Amino acid sequence: MSVTRSFDPRKLRRYLPILEWGSKYTPSTFANDGIAAIIVTIMLIPQSLAYALLAGLPAQMGLYASILPLVAYAIFGTSRALAVGPVAVVSLMTAAAVGNMALQGTAEYAAAAITLAFISGVILLVMGFFRLGFFANFLSHPVIAGFITASGILIAASQIKHIFGVSASGETLPERLISLAQHLGQTNFITLIIGVAATAFLFWVRKGLKPLLISKGVGPRMADIATKAGPVAAVVVTTLISFAFSLNDHGVKIVGEVPRGLPPLTLPHFSPEIWSQLFGSAILISIIGFVESVSVAQTLAAKKRQRIVPDQELIGLGASNIAAAISGGYPVTGGFARSVVNFDAGAETPAAGAFTAVGIALAALFLTPLLYFLPIATLAATIIVAVLSLVDFKILKTTWGYSKADFAAVLATILLTLWFGVETGVSSGVILSIALHLYKTSRPHVAEVGLVPGSEHFRNINRHDVLTVPEMVTIRVDESLYFANARFLEDYILDRIADNPVIKHVVLMCPAVNDVDSSALETLEELNRRLNDAGIKLHLSEVKGPVMDRLQKSHLLQDLSGQVFLSQFAAMKALGDVTKPVPPETQSDTAA
Amino acid sequence: MSVTRSFDPRKLRRYLPILEWGSKYTPSTFANDGIAAIIVTIMLIPQSLAYALLAGLPAQMGLYASILPLVAYAIFGTSRALAVGPVAVVSLMTAAAVGNMALQGTAEYAAAAITLAFISGVILLVMGFFRLGFFANFLSHPVIAGFITASGILIAASQIKHIFGVSASGETLPERLISLAQHLGQTNFITLIIGVAATAFLFWVRKGLKPLLISKGVGPRMADIATKAGPVAAVVVTTLISFAFSLNDHGVKIVGEVPRGLPPLTLPHFSPEIWSQLFGSAILISIIGFVESVSVAQTLAAKKRQRIVPDQELIGLGASNIAAAISGGYPVTGGFARSVVNFDAGAETPAAGAFTAVGIALAALFLTPLLYFLPIATLAATIIVAVLSLVDFKILKTTWGYSKADFAAVLATILLTLWFGVETGVSSGVILSIALHLYKTSRPHVAEVGLVPGSEHFRNINRHDVLTVPEMVTIRVDESLYFANARFLEDYILDRIADNPVIKHVVLMCPAVNDVDSSALETLEELNRRLNDAGIKLHLSEVKGPVMDRLQKSHLLQDLSGQVFLSQFAAMKALGDVTKPVPPETQSDTAA
């Protein structure tokens, strides 16, 4: 009998999905992954530069964030098609978090962004190891939708200054718009022409190029992919113009010197003070990044009946962010547009991500000198066109029609994010949606019911002509009973019996009660005592199996003044003299 | 046609319950209320002094808090028997809140307590006018029980120093015990004898007097009331001893000079700085006080089939606290012990409270000189004996047996309150119980079900021998679908279909789904699309009426790849080839 614990390869595979797909890798998979990688690389170069700009970081940090993190995800991630790297919303959140600590353009600013990636990576890894992915569930859909829309507007507003070639600042929408208006007098018109032209071109590529290509006989999938190369075309053309006319001498801001070479080895700060300042932001960035990433991965995996493991995704994204932190990058997550391109281009395994990393590394080694003359306005145009697809006010309309509480959560999240910035916006949204949920369930639907004549069914006495017995009140509650609504039910019942000396029995009909927590149990025991003091018996009917199992662990059932009935009809037969119930006024019309 | 709005007396009666019961007041009601008032006055005098001491305030403020607030409650309150005034837990919370702002014994300390009562009164009034009483529901029973138990221990620990006649300080239990241990060397032994004797006497009165009186032929109700006079006896006897032997010359701390006369007119601070410092504490005090008060009032009202109006109780308690603030008092609420005495002594209307106020006012006018020699140790004994009845560890045992989540909430609230003080304790408890509730509902009970042979019932495939069809998976979810659990369900279903090419239909069976919020709707729409991409149809069965009404406002039903079935049996007949289902292994044993 050996006491050494045997090595369990399945356990290792849980944490290293690469062992799973790597063992089945074939030349044809390699070819497909390689083609996808080339297409994603072309798309990712301008995006990486632009999002670094949005985060207030040097352009090369965007490239660095698109190399090692992709390799880390390829090893630890479970999605076959997710493409990680810098994304718009996380870049905006990085700027908001780091902007409180240092001035843009300083070394401390960049170091803080690196530290933010590291903390975010640690948070994601810890959540992954302890399987805490469910925390992300507390971000309701209205909050996410409102937040993404507001972020899109904030991001677009932050880039308008680059289109006009002016300086402006501010973190919230009013600050940004006021600062922009104050500086409009300094507009550089050459910059404006480039910016507007690039924006118009990119919008046309997005809307008009695909139909054009299809009408020329290009397949819809290839046409889709080709439209993603629009930003590259804009970058190449405007860089050439900028170079040819030395536009930087005419006040057009350009990217300038981008250091050539592979990512440097960097280390985050470990000062407790800096960690405590960045921790809250890192949690928000981690959770928002995780939610977006899993949602994309889930969508793509379902198309091929593949599965992703959300808790392992936390580890994949955590490893990616730590990889970003040690290689001069900043917080990364799975991007929607590039993952779809990756999937459509035929990526079969996470190796496509690793190959993309090679492509970006080559760009960092050889292409950076060519970016010298790239106008900042072109990158701003890329960002604006990309993020405006995030802005979606339809959610306001759909939630308005479906649920006013959800509408309130969306509207509040949008307004708070625009007015007070991303962190206040999303935190308030989460708190609000939890509060609204508790409020809704704290006032459950409660109906007094009676017997439908000629049947064994019971219905709301206010909506149907039903038989009732004056000595007996039957209350059906359509919600689990827990601390937030237990008192509501108690008030309802005590109100119903107040000043009504005829009542002898109260039956609580529980077919929709999925749980009874300690507070509700205490309330039921209290209600039982109080009704008993008033000479009224409390009965239960149609209690579900699991709820009954749990109640049997308490004293309620043995203390109950009344009985527990399997069906409400049995309760009425036992308690009410059903041969002489009070008929509804219209009974003669409806009785069977 | 008149445009002036007519006066609606019912509206006035909503806010002034006194108009309701006052119009029916009779001489016999007056006699009953008067007798109850005398008994409550006798009980309230030592309590008022003791709780002022506990709050760190001069003794007379306890009396002042038992005069005008009672009159205010008599006008605005809805409970016929509730006796308001200073109570132990709120006194402790007052000490914790005000202790951060000023030193005990200073004029600023007293002024801060007055301001706290005022802010608390405003909060209660605002909550009452806007009918926000449901906020109190978020205090779950485990949190309240844990908090009250921990408060009882903290209060008792805070009084031990008076029994030993030493100085000690500290807000949390460890601080208090360490400080006490450091000062034990300075014990005054005469004080200790008085303190221990008073404590022992009061415990005996509580446990032993009632059986004794009953054995002597006293009725149980009178015996009950007589035991409440124990503290008065202790006060009288120890004051006489203290006076006879001039114990203050031997180092025994006495109450000393208590100003004689009616409550002074006082005004709270209105500085925004002080308000912002006290606001959080005032919210906690208001809500804790409200919850305790309503719970007592509810219990007593139910015995006579009377009703209380929780939102009007907020107004009653708010008016009481504002009355306390303008008459030199401090935060008040409905007390459990004294309300029960009031009820048992025969109080019929809130007028009993007003008569009690007259009694206390007479005491403030004429009795205060007699309190000069009252030993502080006697008051401490009164407090200790009173609060130890609050300490109840049974809640740990009952919640352990009933629900581990609720047990965790109780234990955390107790430990956090003892270790970090009342405010941190109760706030953490509330957050924890909300988080645990969300966690529980975020992982709902989900079962895959099959047909019970020979019936139309469906049961869990893991627990019963049921018929299933390989092409069709039926998932029953036993919880409302909302943001915190929607993704769980989606993951569950996507996991179930992954790598299983046989499945053609997924049926979501919804008899226990009471609500589907926007997030869950979005998830269902997404799930529908994803399953469709994988060639699987999504169906719903047994959807409740109100949920169906709501879903009809969305696009889900028209986009649904499958159908909505009224019953699961109909779904199985339509989708599965029920003539050839796969039998359970033991079917031959169980088939009908």
Descriptive account of the structure:
Chain A has 592 residues and is mostly helical. The first copy, chain A, folds into two domains: 28-411, no CATH class; 446-590, STAS domain (Transcription Regulator spoIIAA). In chain A, 61% of the residues lie in helices and 5% in strands. Chain A has 26 helices and eight strands. The first copy, chain A, has a six-stranded mixed sheet with strand order 4-3-5-6-7-8. Chain A has a two-stranded antiparallel sheet with strand order 1-2. The longest helix of chain A is centred in the middle third of the chain and has 32 residues, at 272-303. Chain A is elongated. The model of chain A is unreliable at 584-592 (pLDDT under 50).
Which structural category do the helix and sheet elements of chain A fall into?
mainly alpha
Fraction of residues in β-strands of chain A: 5-15%
Main sheet makeup of chain A: 6 strands, mixed
Oligomeric nature of the chains: homodimer
Cα distance spanning the termini of chain A: 76 Å
| Total discrete domains of chain A | 2
Roughly how much helix do the residues of chain A carry, as a percent range? 55-70%
Tally of helical segments of chain A: 26
Q: Tell me the Rg of chain A in angstroms.
A: 31 Å
The total beta strand count of chain A reads 8
**Major beta sheet, strand line-up of chain A:** 4-3-5-6-7-8
Q: What low-confidence regions of chain A span 5 or more consecutive residues with pLDDT below 50?
A: 584-592
State the largest interface: A-B, 74 and 74 residues
- What form of chain A results from the Cα inertia axes? elongated
Mean pLDDT of chain A: 87
Keywords (chains A, B): Membrane, Transmembrane, Transmembrane helix
Protein name (chains A, B): Sulfate permease
Organism (chains A, B): Celeribacter baekdonensis B30
InterPro entries (chains A, B): SLC26A/SulP_dom, SLC26A/SulP_fam, STAS_dom, STAS_dom_sf
